[in-house]
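Entry 12.
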Amino acid sequence: MRVETVDLDDWPGRGLSDEELDVAYNVRRKAGPELFERHMGRYRAESARAVDGLPGHPGIVYDEASGERLDVWGAGGPDLRPAFVFLHGGYWMALSRHESSFMARALHGQGVATVVPDYTLAPEATLEEIVRQVRAAVAWVHRHGRGHGLDPDRIVVGGSSAGGHLTGMTMVGGWQAPLGLPEDVVKAAMPFSGLFDLRPLTRVYVNQVVGLDLPRAAALSPALLPAPRRCPAVIAVAEHDGAGFLAQSRRFAPHWDAAGPLVVPDRDHFDVVLDLADPGSAVFRALLALIGPRH
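Predicted 3D structure (tokens):
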């Protein structure tokens, strides 16, 4: 991954103390243990309800090298459906596809299929390997989607938190051609509470697990990577998100030439993405607008 010329020692928040950076990026501490567990319970329960009885193809190995799997939900019928590929969060070291399909039923009702990949969690995998895997998941949808009711020419990627970062790493250029993919394989994107410049994380608790230095953090930062084609995108973030996540979304949206960011009122870092399960919500409507006509 090639990084545009940047000063590695000049990044947003560099002048903050380690404690101030932790406050900005430790959203689990901000939520507190009781609220955090309640949110995780909602992820699990709403995902289980969303896929109960829904047509699908769970547990498909999409990457032979790692053996990682994905689930396809809400496909079927005579017509190919647009694919919303959702990349879960968890600071690259937690959660799975099983807590991450809560939007599948609502999207199915609108003629859209949901694809939810797993990826190997840190520290078992490096962040470079995690990025490789999620790109391989997009490649799988493009190459094999037709056989599972997916339209390979209508792939939209989204994700929350660390998944927002991974979404950004599918938005940038330079990785598509080596995988034999068209540059516009990702037609649109919707990162939630994403991390687009990873340099601040080199001084945050999560780095004890992901182990980044400044050059690697820069090389894995969507805000610093070439993007010759800028796909349509909605950069979403919660009103009550961590200060670091709010700042990152506010910087990345104009960098990407996107309107926004879409700041969702009365939501925090963990529940904002659950609005994707609500057809009446602003984020659900924004996602459908990105996907475009379904028929």
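Annotation: The longest strand covers residues 150-160. The mean pLDDT is 93.
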